[in-house]
Amino acid sequence: MNILPKKRWHVRTRENIARVRRDEAKAKEEETAKEERVKLAEKEARRQLLLQKSRGEFQTTSFVPLDSSEKPCQSGHVNFFEDLEEGRAELKQTNKEREKEVKDEKEKYEKQIGYLTYLGQDTNEALGKKSWYEQPPNRAQDIKEVSLKSKLREDPLVLMKKIGEQHKKARAAVVEARRYSELRKEFFEDVSRQSKKRKIPEDIVSPCADKEAEKQRKLEALRAERLRREKEERRRSEELLAKVIGGDEKKQPPKESTRRYNAQFNPELAKQNYSRR
Fold first, then answer.
1. Contact in structure between 253 and 268 (CB atoms under 8 Å)
2. CA–CA separation, 150 vs 66, rounded Å?
3. Compositionally biased, Basic and acidic residues: which spans (predicted)?
4. From CA 212, how far away is CA 208, in angstroms rounded?
5. Could you tell me where the DSSP H helices lie in the chain?
6. 8 A C-beta contact, residue 226 and residue 246
């Protein structure tokens, strides 16, 4: 149902359910009253019929009632089962099975819509169910042992075996390392022994020495060429600076006696080495 439950016109609100119940009770009362009237009419008709039959059998012309409303008294013994014999007692009784069925249907409907609730209606006793802790375990299906990994991990025998295997591996590694070091030592000793026994011939040594000397000569030549270029570039820069300053005269380098510092780099460019005019 798409109507929101909080709406006033919803079918299953408490007010609407109570109103429906009142209407049903009122209709039931009206139907019961109608049935009672029918039963009363049938009872009166049967009574009139019996009275007519009894008046036909017995002559009551000589009997004069004192009151017009008083009914004539019948002679004879008292019959306490007159209602049962005439069927009037059955009309007063109700059908208990039918009433029980109606009550059960009404209770079932009110439980479905959530209007009628009982304390403990959702318990296992009321529903006829059992919780998992109330049921006995099925040993046939539970083949695997519970927490087997943790038990094996914490088992002392398993730990002892594991430690023993680790010690064996460590001893094997130490033995292997010692053997490797001994073999390596023997190998280098053999190599050194053989190198001492053999001498390198001079025809093999001389080409190597010539190559090293040739390499050194090339390096020296390149270094000298670099120094020469640097000196030439320095001279050109000095001439350019002299032209920019405006002095055509070439400044003479100061004498050794005019130098203020003994270890001076590029003394010809230092300003303090020249006399002020």
1. yes
2. 109
3. 209-259
4. 6
5. 14-57, 82-86, 88-92, 96-112, 124-127, 148-153, 156-197, 202-245
6. no
The 10 Å Cβ neighbour count of residue 251 is: 13
What span, in angstroms and rounded, lies between the C-alpha atoms of 231 and 226? 9
pLDDT in tens, 30-71: 999 999 999 999 999 999 888 888 877 655 555 555 555 555
This prediction's pTM: 0.22
Count of alpha carbons within 13 Å of 135, Cβ hemisphere only? 8
Contacts of 234 (CB under 8 A, 6+ apart): 266
Concatenated DSSP letters for 199-251?
Answer: ---HHHHHHHHHHHHHHHHHHHHHHHHHHHHHHHHHHHHHHHHHHHHT--SPP
Contact 145, 138 (CB under 8 A): no
Handedness of CA 112, 117, 123, 125 (dihedral sign): negative
Structure tokens at 142: 């539970």
Among residues 122, 100, 101, the alpha carbon closest in space to that of 111 is found at 122
